[in-house]
Design goal:
Helices cover about 35% and strands about 15% of the residues. The protein has about 550 residues and is α+β, with helices and mostly antiparallel strands. It has a domain at about 255-370 and about 445-560: 4-Layer Sandwich (Glutamine Phosphoribosylpyrophosphate, subunit 1, domain 1), CATH 3.60.20. It has a 7-stranded antiparallel beta sheet with strand order 1-18-17-13-12-9-8. Strands 7-4-3-11-10-2-19 form a 7-stranded antiparallel beta sheet. Strands 14-15-16 form a 3-stranded mixed beta sheet. The longest helix has 21 residues, at about 300-320. The two termini are about 35 Å apart. Bound molecules: glycine. Glycine binds near residues 444 and 445.
Protein backbone atom coordinates (compact mmCIF):
# COMPACT_ATOMS: atom_id res chain seq x y z
CA UNK A 1 0.00 0.00 0.00
CA UNK A 2 2.79 2.35 1.04
CA UNK A 3 4.60 1.46 -2.18
CA UNK A 4 1.53 2.28 -4.26
CA UNK A 5 1.12 5.63 -2.53
CA UNK A 6 4.76 6.42 -3.19
CA UNK A 7 4.39 5.63 -6.93
CA UNK A 8 1.18 7.66 -7.06
CA UNK A 9 2.86 10.68 -5.47
CA UNK A 10 5.83 10.45 -7.82
CA UNK A 11 3.74 9.97 -10.98
CA UNK A 12 3.29 13.67 -11.75
CA UNK A 13 7.05 14.09 -11.43
CA UNK A 14 7.77 11.32 -13.96
CA UNK A 15 5.17 12.64 -16.40
CA UNK A 16 6.48 16.17 -16.07
CA UNK A 17 10.08 14.99 -16.42
CA UNK A 18 9.17 13.26 -19.70
CA UNK A 19 7.66 16.38 -21.19
CA UNK A 20 9.80 19.16 -19.93
CA UNK A 21 13.12 20.09 -21.46
CA UNK A 22 16.29 19.06 -19.66
CA UNK A 23 18.25 22.10 -18.56
CA UNK A 24 20.91 23.35 -20.92
CA UNK A 25 24.46 22.58 -19.77
CA UNK A 26 27.27 24.46 -21.49
CA UNK A 27 30.39 22.77 -20.14
CA UNK A 28 31.19 19.47 -18.42
CA UNK A 29 34.57 18.12 -17.36
CA UNK A 30 34.85 14.39 -16.94
CA UNK A 31 37.40 11.73 -16.24
CA UNK A 32 36.58 8.37 -17.82
CA UNK A 33 32.90 9.02 -18.40
CA UNK A 34 31.49 9.50 -21.85
CA UNK A 35 30.51 13.00 -23.05
CA UNK A 36 28.11 14.04 -25.79
CA UNK A 37 27.72 17.58 -27.08
CA UNK A 38 25.01 18.50 -29.58
CA UNK A 39 22.57 21.24 -30.52
CA UNK A 40 19.87 20.00 -28.12
CA UNK A 41 19.89 18.89 -24.47
CA UNK A 42 17.45 16.04 -25.12
CA UNK A 43 19.53 14.71 -28.01
CA UNK A 44 22.77 14.86 -26.01
CA UNK A 45 20.94 13.04 -23.20
CA UNK A 46 19.78 10.32 -25.65
CA UNK A 47 23.43 9.70 -26.56
CA UNK A 48 24.55 9.68 -22.92
CA UNK A 49 21.70 7.33 -22.04
CA UNK A 50 22.73 4.65 -24.55
CA UNK A 51 26.30 4.89 -23.23
CA UNK A 52 24.91 4.24 -19.73
CA UNK A 53 23.20 1.17 -21.22
CA UNK A 54 26.61 -0.19 -22.29
CA UNK A 55 26.94 1.52 -25.66
CA UNK A 56 30.08 3.20 -26.97
CA UNK A 57 30.65 6.49 -28.80
CA UNK A 58 29.19 5.07 -32.04
CA UNK A 59 26.01 3.91 -30.31
CA UNK A 60 25.74 7.42 -28.89
CA UNK A 61 26.28 8.97 -32.34
CA UNK A 62 23.36 6.98 -33.77
CA UNK A 63 21.01 7.68 -30.83
CA UNK A 64 21.88 11.39 -30.73
CA UNK A 65 21.31 11.86 -34.46
CA UNK A 66 17.97 10.05 -34.30
CA UNK A 67 16.90 12.17 -31.31
CA UNK A 68 17.95 15.34 -33.15
CA UNK A 69 15.66 14.28 -36.02
CA UNK A 70 12.81 14.65 -33.50
CA UNK A 71 13.78 17.56 -31.25
CA UNK A 72 15.80 19.65 -33.72
CA UNK A 73 13.82 19.29 -36.95
CA UNK A 74 15.39 22.38 -38.55
CA UNK A 75 18.60 20.39 -39.19
CA UNK A 76 18.54 17.05 -37.34
CA UNK A 77 17.11 14.57 -39.77
CA UNK A 78 16.27 11.27 -41.31
CA UNK A 79 15.47 13.07 -44.58
CA UNK A 80 18.95 14.49 -45.15
CA UNK A 81 22.54 13.32 -45.05
CA UNK A 82 25.83 13.67 -43.24
CA UNK A 83 29.42 12.67 -42.63
CA UNK A 84 30.89 10.77 -39.68
CA UNK A 85 34.57 10.72 -38.74
CA UNK A 86 35.61 8.12 -36.15
CA UNK A 87 38.84 7.28 -34.35
CA UNK A 88 38.77 4.14 -32.21
CA UNK A 89 40.89 3.54 -29.12
CA UNK A 90 42.84 0.92 -31.12
CA UNK A 91 43.92 3.67 -33.53
CA UNK A 92 41.52 2.75 -36.35
CA UNK A 93 40.39 5.83 -38.28
CA UNK A 94 37.34 5.75 -40.54
CA UNK A 95 34.67 7.89 -42.15
CA UNK A 96 31.15 7.19 -43.31
CA UNK A 97 29.80 9.34 -46.12
CA UNK A 98 26.02 9.35 -46.17
CA UNK A 99 25.69 12.45 -48.28
CA UNK A 100 22.57 12.67 -50.44
CA UNK A 101 22.82 11.83 -54.15
CA UNK A 102 21.13 13.32 -57.22
CA UNK A 103 18.09 11.34 -58.42
CA UNK A 104 18.30 9.25 -61.60
CA UNK A 105 16.14 11.80 -63.44
CA UNK A 106 18.31 14.77 -62.42
CA UNK A 107 20.34 16.57 -65.08
CA UNK A 108 22.99 19.27 -65.32
CA UNK A 109 20.62 22.05 -66.39
CA UNK A 110 17.50 21.02 -64.48
CA UNK A 111 17.31 24.36 -62.62
CA UNK A 112 17.83 26.60 -65.66
CA UNK A 113 14.90 28.44 -67.21
CA UNK A 114 14.34 28.87 -70.96
CA UNK A 115 16.72 31.83 -71.02
CA UNK A 116 19.42 29.79 -69.30
CA UNK A 117 19.10 31.62 -65.99
CA UNK A 118 19.44 29.66 -62.74
CA UNK A 119 16.15 29.35 -60.85
CA UNK A 120 17.42 29.11 -57.27
CA UNK A 121 13.87 28.98 -55.92
CA UNK A 122 13.55 25.51 -57.47
CA UNK A 123 16.91 24.29 -56.14
CA UNK A 124 16.23 25.67 -52.66
CA UNK A 125 12.53 25.15 -51.96
CA UNK A 126 10.03 22.41 -52.55
CA UNK A 127 10.20 18.88 -53.91
CA UNK A 128 12.60 19.39 -56.83
CA UNK A 129 15.29 20.56 -54.37
CA UNK A 130 15.44 17.15 -52.64
CA UNK A 131 18.44 14.82 -52.90
CA UNK A 132 18.10 11.13 -52.04
CA UNK A 133 18.38 10.99 -48.24
CA UNK A 134 21.40 9.16 -46.83
CA UNK A 135 21.07 9.50 -43.05
CA UNK A 136 19.23 6.25 -42.29
CA UNK A 137 21.74 4.25 -44.35
CA UNK A 138 24.46 6.13 -42.44
CA UNK A 139 23.04 5.05 -39.07
CA UNK A 140 23.01 1.41 -40.17
CA UNK A 141 26.56 1.67 -41.56
CA UNK A 142 27.68 3.07 -38.18
CA UNK A 143 26.07 0.13 -36.38
CA UNK A 144 29.00 -2.18 -37.11
CA UNK A 145 31.19 0.04 -34.90
CA UNK A 146 28.55 0.13 -32.12
CA UNK A 147 27.64 -2.37 -29.41
CA UNK A 148 23.86 -2.16 -29.01
CA UNK A 149 21.16 -3.12 -31.54
CA UNK A 150 19.31 -0.42 -33.50
CA UNK A 151 16.15 -1.46 -31.70
CA UNK A 152 17.56 0.10 -28.51
CA UNK A 153 19.34 3.06 -30.13
CA UNK A 154 16.20 4.32 -31.84
CA UNK A 155 13.97 4.01 -28.74
CA UNK A 156 14.83 7.41 -27.19
CA UNK A 157 13.86 9.10 -30.46
CA UNK A 158 10.60 7.13 -30.61
CA UNK A 159 9.79 8.16 -27.03
CA UNK A 160 10.52 11.81 -27.77
CA UNK A 161 8.34 11.75 -30.90
CA UNK A 162 5.49 9.85 -29.25
CA UNK A 163 5.35 11.56 -25.86
CA UNK A 164 6.45 14.95 -27.12
CA UNK A 165 8.82 17.50 -25.72
CA UNK A 166 8.24 21.03 -24.48
CA UNK A 167 9.33 23.77 -26.88
CA UNK A 168 11.68 26.44 -25.63
CA UNK A 169 10.86 30.08 -26.36
CA UNK A 170 13.40 30.08 -29.18
CA UNK A 171 12.03 26.89 -30.73
CA UNK A 172 8.47 28.22 -30.62
CA UNK A 173 9.57 31.48 -32.27
CA UNK A 174 11.46 29.55 -34.96
CA UNK A 175 8.41 27.46 -35.87
CA UNK A 176 6.25 30.61 -35.95
CA UNK A 177 8.72 32.29 -38.29
CA UNK A 178 8.39 29.42 -40.78
CA UNK A 179 4.59 29.19 -41.05
CA UNK A 180 4.36 30.89 -44.44
CA UNK A 181 7.01 28.57 -45.90
CA UNK A 182 5.39 25.44 -44.45
CA UNK A 183 2.07 26.64 -45.89
CA UNK A 184 3.61 27.31 -49.29
CA UNK A 185 5.40 23.98 -49.66
CA UNK A 186 3.00 21.46 -48.15
CA UNK A 187 -0.26 20.28 -49.70
CA UNK A 188 -1.41 18.53 -46.54
CA UNK A 189 -1.45 19.91 -43.00
CA UNK A 190 1.81 19.17 -41.14
CA UNK A 191 2.35 18.80 -37.40
CA UNK A 192 4.53 21.92 -37.53
CA UNK A 193 1.61 24.18 -38.57
CA UNK A 194 -1.21 25.23 -36.29
CA UNK A 195 -3.81 27.95 -36.12
CA UNK A 196 -2.51 29.70 -33.03
CA UNK A 197 1.10 30.73 -32.55
CA UNK A 198 3.48 28.22 -30.98
CA UNK A 199 4.55 29.27 -27.51
CA UNK A 200 7.12 28.23 -24.94
CA UNK A 201 6.06 25.04 -23.14
CA UNK A 202 3.86 23.73 -25.99
CA UNK A 203 4.33 20.01 -26.48
CA UNK A 204 5.49 18.95 -29.93
CA UNK A 205 4.13 15.42 -30.40
CA UNK A 206 5.05 13.76 -33.72
CA UNK A 207 2.95 10.60 -34.16
CA UNK A 208 3.70 10.06 -37.86
CA UNK A 209 7.42 10.39 -37.22
CA UNK A 210 7.14 7.96 -34.27
CA UNK A 211 5.47 5.45 -36.61
CA UNK A 212 8.22 5.92 -39.21
CA UNK A 213 10.88 5.34 -36.56
CA UNK A 214 9.03 2.24 -35.32
CA UNK A 215 8.97 0.85 -38.85
CA UNK A 216 12.76 1.36 -39.01
CA UNK A 217 13.10 -0.23 -35.56
CA UNK A 218 11.26 -3.32 -36.78
CA UNK A 219 12.29 -3.55 -40.42
CA UNK A 220 15.78 -2.01 -40.45
CA UNK A 221 17.23 0.09 -43.25
CA UNK A 222 14.82 -1.39 -45.81
CA UNK A 223 11.91 0.01 -43.87
CA UNK A 224 13.10 3.46 -44.99
CA UNK A 225 14.41 2.81 -48.51
CA UNK A 226 11.67 0.34 -49.52
CA UNK A 227 8.09 -0.37 -48.50
CA UNK A 228 5.72 2.09 -46.84
CA UNK A 229 8.17 4.90 -45.98
CA UNK A 230 9.70 4.91 -49.46
CA UNK A 231 6.21 4.89 -50.98
CA UNK A 232 5.23 7.87 -48.81
CA UNK A 233 8.34 9.79 -50.00
CA UNK A 234 7.53 9.05 -53.64
CA UNK A 235 3.87 9.99 -53.08
CA UNK A 236 5.08 13.30 -51.62
CA UNK A 237 7.11 13.88 -54.80
CA UNK A 238 3.95 13.57 -56.90
CA UNK A 239 2.25 16.38 -54.89
CA UNK A 240 4.58 18.77 -56.72
CA UNK A 241 7.55 18.72 -59.04
CA UNK A 242 9.61 16.06 -57.22
CA UNK A 243 11.54 13.44 -59.19
CA UNK A 244 12.72 10.88 -56.61
CA UNK A 245 11.63 7.34 -57.54
CA UNK A 246 11.39 4.04 -55.63
CA UNK A 247 14.39 2.92 -57.67
CA UNK A 248 16.42 5.93 -56.45
CA UNK A 249 15.66 5.07 -52.83
CA UNK A 250 16.31 1.34 -53.22
CA UNK A 251 19.74 1.99 -54.73
CA UNK A 252 21.06 4.58 -52.23
CA UNK A 253 24.43 3.50 -50.79
CA UNK A 254 26.76 5.01 -48.18
CA UNK A 255 30.46 5.32 -49.04
CA UNK A 256 33.08 4.30 -46.49
CA UNK A 257 36.09 6.41 -47.37
CA UNK A 258 39.60 6.84 -46.01
CA UNK A 259 39.73 9.95 -43.82
CA UNK A 260 41.80 12.95 -44.85
CA UNK A 261 44.80 12.91 -42.50
CA UNK A 262 47.54 15.55 -42.21
CA UNK A 263 49.96 16.99 -39.70
CA UNK A 264 49.46 20.31 -37.96
CA UNK A 265 52.27 21.41 -35.65
CA UNK A 266 52.98 17.82 -34.58
CA UNK A 267 49.31 16.86 -34.18
CA UNK A 268 47.51 14.49 -36.53
CA UNK A 269 44.33 16.00 -37.98
CA UNK A 270 41.68 13.48 -39.13
CA UNK A 271 38.90 15.05 -41.17
CA UNK A 272 36.42 14.45 -43.98
CA UNK A 273 37.61 14.42 -47.57
CA UNK A 274 35.61 14.76 -50.78
CA UNK A 275 32.71 14.98 -51.41
CA UNK A 276 33.08 17.38 -48.54
CA UNK A 277 35.42 20.23 -49.29
CA UNK A 278 35.78 20.65 -45.50
CA UNK A 279 38.87 18.54 -44.85
CA UNK A 280 40.79 19.85 -47.85
CA UNK A 281 40.00 23.47 -46.99
CA UNK A 282 40.99 22.87 -43.37
CA UNK A 283 44.31 21.33 -44.43
CA UNK A 284 45.02 24.14 -46.90
CA UNK A 285 44.19 26.90 -44.44
CA UNK A 286 46.09 25.40 -41.50
CA UNK A 287 49.14 24.72 -43.67
CA UNK A 288 49.20 28.15 -45.35
CA UNK A 289 48.81 30.11 -42.12
CA UNK A 290 51.23 27.59 -40.60
CA UNK A 291 53.95 29.14 -42.81
CA UNK A 292 53.64 32.21 -40.57
CA UNK A 293 54.30 32.42 -36.83
CA UNK A 294 50.66 32.96 -35.87
CA UNK A 295 51.18 32.70 -32.12
CA UNK A 296 53.56 35.69 -32.24
CA UNK A 297 50.45 37.80 -32.88
CA UNK A 298 47.51 37.98 -30.49
CA UNK A 299 44.28 36.07 -30.97
CA UNK A 300 41.96 38.11 -33.25
CA UNK A 301 44.74 40.68 -33.77
CA UNK A 302 44.78 42.40 -37.18
CA UNK A 303 47.99 40.54 -38.15
CA UNK A 304 46.67 37.08 -37.28
CA UNK A 305 43.24 37.67 -38.83
CA UNK A 306 44.84 38.98 -42.04
CA UNK A 307 46.99 35.86 -42.39
CA UNK A 308 44.04 33.57 -41.77
CA UNK A 309 41.69 35.48 -44.10
CA UNK A 310 44.28 35.25 -46.90
CA UNK A 311 44.61 31.48 -46.31
CA UNK A 312 40.80 31.24 -46.51
CA UNK A 313 40.75 33.25 -49.76
CA UNK A 314 43.19 30.92 -51.52
CA UNK A 315 41.53 27.73 -50.22
CA UNK A 316 38.04 28.78 -51.29
CA UNK A 317 39.23 29.72 -54.79
CA UNK A 318 40.47 26.12 -55.12
CA UNK A 319 37.17 24.80 -53.80
CA UNK A 320 35.29 26.43 -56.65
CA UNK A 321 37.56 25.12 -59.35
CA UNK A 322 38.64 21.65 -58.29
CA UNK A 323 36.24 20.09 -55.79
CA UNK A 324 33.29 17.75 -56.28
CA UNK A 325 32.28 14.10 -55.85
CA UNK A 326 35.51 12.04 -56.16
CA UNK A 327 33.54 9.21 -57.78
CA UNK A 328 32.81 11.53 -60.73
CA UNK A 329 35.82 13.84 -61.10
CA UNK A 330 39.58 13.53 -61.11
CA UNK A 331 40.48 13.83 -57.43
CA UNK A 332 43.16 16.51 -56.91
CA UNK A 333 43.30 16.22 -53.09
CA UNK A 334 46.91 15.09 -52.81
CA UNK A 335 48.24 18.00 -54.82
CA UNK A 336 45.90 20.57 -53.24
CA UNK A 337 47.14 19.83 -49.72
CA UNK A 338 50.81 19.32 -50.61
CA UNK A 339 53.34 21.69 -49.02
CA UNK A 340 54.90 22.32 -52.42
CA UNK A 341 51.61 23.53 -53.94
CA UNK A 342 50.60 25.57 -50.88
CA UNK A 343 53.98 27.31 -50.64
CA UNK A 344 53.50 28.51 -54.23
CA UNK A 345 49.95 29.59 -53.40
CA UNK A 346 51.22 31.56 -50.39
CA UNK A 347 53.85 33.49 -52.36
CA UNK A 348 51.33 36.20 -53.31
CA UNK A 349 50.53 36.96 -49.64
CA UNK A 350 51.41 40.53 -48.67
CA UNK A 351 51.28 41.91 -45.12
CA UNK A 352 50.62 45.37 -46.55
CA UNK A 353 47.40 44.90 -48.49
CA UNK A 354 44.47 42.56 -49.10
CA UNK A 355 45.06 40.28 -52.11
CA UNK A 356 42.29 40.95 -54.66
CA UNK A 357 40.23 37.75 -55.07
CA UNK A 358 40.67 37.93 -58.86
CA UNK A 359 44.42 37.40 -58.31
CA UNK A 360 44.03 33.98 -56.68
CA UNK A 361 41.47 32.21 -58.87
CA UNK A 362 39.46 32.26 -62.04
CA UNK A 363 36.35 34.25 -61.06
CA UNK A 364 33.48 31.77 -61.06
CA UNK A 365 30.32 33.20 -59.52
CA UNK A 366 29.78 31.36 -56.20
CA UNK A 367 26.53 29.71 -55.17
CA UNK A 368 25.21 30.68 -51.74
CA UNK A 369 24.92 27.99 -49.05
CA UNK A 370 22.59 27.84 -46.06
CA UNK A 371 23.99 28.20 -42.55
CA UNK A 372 21.89 25.44 -41.02
CA UNK A 373 23.18 21.91 -40.36
CA UNK A 374 24.15 20.51 -36.98
CA UNK A 375 27.16 18.85 -35.36
CA UNK A 376 27.75 16.26 -32.61
CA UNK A 377 31.06 15.56 -30.81
CA UNK A 378 31.38 12.46 -28.61
CA UNK A 379 34.05 10.68 -26.56
CA UNK A 380 33.31 7.48 -24.63
CA UNK A 381 34.90 6.19 -21.42
CA UNK A 382 37.19 3.90 -23.40
CA UNK A 383 38.60 6.72 -25.54
CA UNK A 384 36.64 6.10 -28.76
CA UNK A 385 35.91 9.40 -30.50
CA UNK A 386 33.40 10.49 -33.10
CA UNK A 387 32.57 13.74 -34.89
CA UNK A 388 29.38 13.81 -36.96
CA UNK A 389 27.93 16.66 -38.99
CA UNK A 390 24.46 16.17 -40.46
CA UNK A 391 22.15 18.40 -42.45
CA UNK A 392 18.97 19.12 -44.35
CA UNK A 393 20.96 21.97 -45.95
CA UNK A 394 18.66 24.97 -45.40
CA UNK A 395 16.57 25.64 -42.30
CA UNK A 396 14.02 22.76 -42.36
CA UNK A 397 15.54 21.80 -45.73
CA UNK A 398 13.10 21.99 -48.63
CA UNK A 399 10.34 22.84 -46.04
CA UNK A 400 8.47 19.80 -47.36
CA UNK A 401 7.27 17.25 -44.79
CA UNK A 402 6.60 13.73 -46.08
CA UNK A 403 2.86 13.43 -45.55
CA UNK A 404 2.05 10.40 -43.37
CA UNK A 405 5.73 9.94 -42.43
CA UNK A 406 6.26 13.19 -40.49
CA UNK A 407 9.81 14.23 -41.43
CA UNK A 408 11.35 17.06 -43.42
CA UNK A 409 13.12 16.44 -46.72
CA UNK A 410 16.43 18.14 -47.50
CA UNK A 411 17.10 20.80 -50.16
CA UNK A 412 20.63 19.52 -50.71
CA UNK A 413 20.43 19.74 -54.53
CA UNK A 414 21.23 23.42 -54.06
CA UNK A 415 24.75 22.43 -52.95
CA UNK A 416 25.50 21.43 -56.56
CA UNK A 417 26.65 24.18 -58.91
CA UNK A 418 23.20 24.51 -60.44
CA UNK A 419 24.67 26.75 -63.08
CA UNK A 420 28.43 26.56 -62.79
CA UNK A 421 29.32 30.08 -61.78
CA UNK A 422 26.09 31.00 -59.96
CA UNK A 423 26.27 31.35 -56.14
CA UNK A 424 24.26 28.88 -53.99
CA UNK A 425 22.46 29.89 -50.80
CA UNK A 426 25.78 30.27 -48.91
CA UNK A 427 27.30 32.44 -51.66
CA UNK A 428 29.75 29.65 -52.57
CA UNK A 429 30.62 29.58 -56.25
CA UNK A 430 30.93 26.19 -57.85
CA UNK A 431 32.48 25.10 -61.08
CA UNK A 432 32.04 22.21 -63.47
CA UNK A 433 33.54 19.73 -60.94
CA UNK A 434 30.36 20.14 -58.89
CA UNK A 435 27.80 20.08 -61.71
CA UNK A 436 24.71 17.85 -61.40
CA UNK A 437 24.77 14.23 -62.61
CA UNK A 438 22.43 11.37 -61.63
CA UNK A 439 23.87 9.43 -58.67
CA UNK A 440 26.45 12.14 -57.90
CA UNK A 441 26.97 13.62 -54.42
CA UNK A 442 26.82 17.42 -54.14
CA UNK A 443 29.91 19.16 -52.73
CA UNK A 444 29.66 19.91 -49.00
CA UNK A 445 31.46 22.14 -46.51
CA UNK A 446 30.85 19.92 -43.49
CA UNK A 447 34.05 19.40 -41.50
CA UNK A 448 33.70 16.83 -38.70
CA UNK A 449 37.23 16.64 -37.34
CA UNK A 450 39.25 14.78 -34.71
CA UNK A 451 42.79 15.96 -33.86
CA UNK A 452 45.14 13.39 -32.33
CA UNK A 453 48.11 14.04 -30.08
CA UNK A 454 50.49 11.10 -29.69
CA UNK A 455 47.89 8.96 -31.47
CA UNK A 456 45.09 9.72 -28.97
CA UNK A 457 42.03 11.99 -29.42
CA UNK A 458 42.91 15.52 -28.33
CA UNK A 459 40.25 17.69 -30.03
CA UNK A 460 36.82 16.59 -31.36
CA UNK A 461 35.16 19.45 -33.21
CA UNK A 462 32.63 20.55 -35.79
CA UNK A 463 29.90 23.08 -36.43
CA UNK A 464 27.00 23.99 -38.70
CA UNK A 465 27.27 27.08 -40.88
CA UNK A 466 27.50 26.20 -44.60
CA UNK A 467 30.66 27.66 -46.03
CA UNK A 468 31.52 29.08 -42.62
CA UNK A 469 31.96 25.51 -41.32
CA UNK A 470 35.57 24.94 -42.44
CA UNK A 471 36.62 28.44 -41.39
CA UNK A 472 35.04 28.03 -37.92
CA UNK A 473 36.68 24.62 -37.40
CA UNK A 474 39.96 26.18 -38.60
CA UNK A 475 39.66 28.97 -36.02
CA UNK A 476 38.74 26.56 -33.23
CA UNK A 477 41.89 24.51 -33.89
CA UNK A 478 44.15 27.57 -34.19
CA UNK A 479 42.55 29.05 -31.05
CA UNK A 480 43.46 25.91 -29.09
CA UNK A 481 46.85 24.99 -30.57
CA UNK A 482 48.40 28.35 -31.51
CA UNK A 483 46.70 30.80 -29.17
CA UNK A 484 46.24 28.31 -26.30
CA UNK A 485 42.75 29.60 -25.49
CA UNK A 486 40.62 27.68 -23.00
CA UNK A 487 38.06 25.35 -24.63
CA UNK A 488 35.29 27.77 -23.68
CA UNK A 489 37.05 30.76 -25.27
CA UNK A 490 38.05 28.71 -28.33
CA UNK A 491 34.34 28.15 -28.99
CA UNK A 492 32.75 31.38 -27.86
CA UNK A 493 35.17 34.17 -28.75
CA UNK A 494 34.09 36.16 -31.83
CA UNK A 495 34.74 34.51 -35.18
CA UNK A 496 35.34 35.76 -38.73
CA UNK A 497 34.86 34.26 -42.16
CA UNK A 498 36.08 34.83 -45.69
CA UNK A 499 35.37 32.66 -48.73
CA UNK A 500 37.18 34.28 -51.69
CA UNK A 501 33.90 35.46 -53.24
CA UNK A 502 32.35 37.77 -52.28
CA UNK A 503 35.40 39.82 -51.22
CA UNK A 504 33.81 40.74 -47.86
CA UNK A 505 35.22 39.50 -44.58
CA UNK A 506 32.38 38.61 -42.21
CA UNK A 507 32.90 39.25 -38.50
CA UNK A 508 30.61 38.55 -35.57
CA UNK A 509 29.03 41.64 -34.04
CA UNK A 510 31.28 41.58 -30.96
CA UNK A 511 34.50 41.34 -33.01
CA UNK A 512 37.29 43.72 -31.81
CA UNK A 513 36.73 47.16 -33.40
CA UNK A 514 40.45 47.90 -33.46
CA UNK A 515 41.12 44.85 -35.64
CA UNK A 516 38.29 45.82 -38.00
CA UNK A 517 39.75 49.35 -38.44
CA UNK A 518 43.29 48.06 -39.00
CA UNK A 519 42.09 45.64 -41.67
CA UNK A 520 40.01 48.33 -43.39
CA UNK A 521 43.21 50.36 -43.76
CA UNK A 522 44.61 47.44 -45.77
CA UNK A 523 41.61 47.40 -48.16
CA UNK A 524 39.60 44.66 -46.47
CA UNK A 525 35.81 45.07 -46.78
CA UNK A 526 34.54 44.20 -43.32
CA UNK A 527 30.91 43.21 -42.71
CA UNK A 528 29.27 42.51 -39.34
CA UNK A 529 26.91 39.54 -38.99
CA UNK A 530 25.00 38.40 -35.92
CA UNK A 531 26.73 35.05 -35.48
CA UNK A 532 28.92 32.46 -37.17
CA UNK A 533 28.47 28.74 -36.51
CA UNK A 534 27.63 26.72 -33.40
CA UNK A 535 30.77 24.81 -32.49
CA UNK A 536 30.56 21.63 -30.41
CA UNK A 537 33.95 20.87 -28.91
CA UNK A 538 35.54 18.19 -26.75
CA UNK A 539 39.15 18.43 -25.67
CA UNK A 540 41.01 15.67 -23.87
CA UNK A 541 44.30 16.15 -21.97
CA UNK A 542 47.21 13.68 -21.68
CA UNK A 543 45.69 12.19 -18.49
CA UNK A 544 42.37 11.45 -20.20
CA UNK A 545 40.47 14.33 -18.58
CA UNK A 546 37.88 15.55 -21.05
CA UNK A 547 36.12 18.92 -21.28
CA UNK A 548 33.07 19.29 -23.50
CA UNK A 549 31.83 22.75 -24.48
CA UNK A 550 28.50 23.48 -26.16
CA UNK A 551 28.43 26.69 -28.20
CA UNK A 552 26.96 29.65 -26.33
CA UNK A 553 25.38 31.01 -29.51
CA UNK A 554 22.47 28.56 -29.27
CA UNK A 555 20.70 26.19 -26.90
CA UNK A 556 23.38 23.56 -27.52
CA UNK A 557 24.09 21.33 -24.53
CA UNK A 558 26.49 18.75 -23.09
CA UNK A 559 25.46 15.46 -21.44
CA UNK A 560 27.57 13.05 -19.44
CA UNK A 561 27.30 9.25 -19.40
N1 LIG B 1 24.58 21.84 -46.85
C1 LIG B 1 25.66 22.24 -46.06
C2 LIG B 1 26.90 21.50 -46.38
O1 LIG B 1 26.82 20.38 -46.86
O2 LIG B 1 27.96 21.99 -46.20
Amino acid sequence: MKKLLFIFLLLPYFLFAQFTEISIVKEIKSNKRGLVVSAHALASEAGAKVMRMGGNAYDAAIATQLALAVVYPQAGNIGGGGFLVGVKNNGEKFTIDYRETAPENASRDMYLDKKGNANTDLSQNGRLAVGIPGSVAGFFATLKHAKLPMEKLIQPAIDLAEKGFALTEREAALLNSQTEFFNAHNKTQTIFQKKEMWKQGDLLIQKDLADTLKRIQKGGEKAFYEGKTAALIVAEMTRGNGIITMNDLRHYKVAERAPLVFDYRGNEVVSMGLPSSGGILLAQMLKMSGFENLSAYGHNSAEAVQIMVEAERRAFADRAEFMGDPDFISDKTERLISDEYLKKRWKSFSKNLATPSADVGKIIPQPKESTETTHISIIDKDGNAVAVTTTLNGLFGSKVVVSGAGFFLNNEMDDFSIKPGVPNMFGAVGGEANSIKPGKRMLSSMTPTIVLKDGKPFIIVGTPGGTTIPTSVYQSIVNLIDFKLSPERAVNSPKFHHQWLPENVLVEKNFPEFTIKELEKKNYKMEKVSQIGRTELIIIDEKGNATAVADGRGEDSVAVE
